[in-house]
Amino acid sequence: MSDVRIESFTQEVEKVFLFLHNEYARLQTGRANAALVESVTVDAYGQNQPLKGVAGVSIQDARTIVIQPWDNSIMGAIESALSAADLGVSPVNDGNVIRLSLPPMTEERRTHLKKVVHSLAEDARISVRQLRQHAHDKIKDEEKDEDLRYTLLEELEKAVKASNEKIEVSKKEKDEEVMKV
What we know:
This protein is an alpha+beta fold and 181 residues long. It has helices spanning 4-26, 35-38, 51-54, 75-84, 107-142, 146-179, and strands at 41-44, 47-50, 55-61, 64-69, 91-93, 98-101. The longest helix is centred in the C-terminal third of the chain and has 36 residues, at 107-142.
């Protein structure tokens, strides 16, 4: 049996997963990843625009991100935006493209990233708990039939358990990726 309140909870949890995966993608794990720079905003044409809106981002090799502006007149703005973004790498402008060479990961950096991964996973679990509490209160307040209320609350708990397991699996996968040498 599916209820609107359970479906609403499930949709909100999917947003939490999407946010978690986007945050994981932005972590620098030693391999070049376009998501590392896509959130950078560039002051171009008199307004702030996302980097992916003013340039093409590609991966040259395992440690190099190449940014090809569609208009070379904003090359300097892109370079300064990348420098200001505090990505831990320095942009190199060769006139046509900007290259970001990622340094090899140190053990200290891997340990730090592992802590960040755990923190992001915990934040996701907290969000799921808050969503659960909201759905739980809504079901208790709105549902008069005791049997149906009990059934819905059980269904909600199953959805919460599945969500937490999904977060844990995602965390373990990211941990392995971060710690891989």
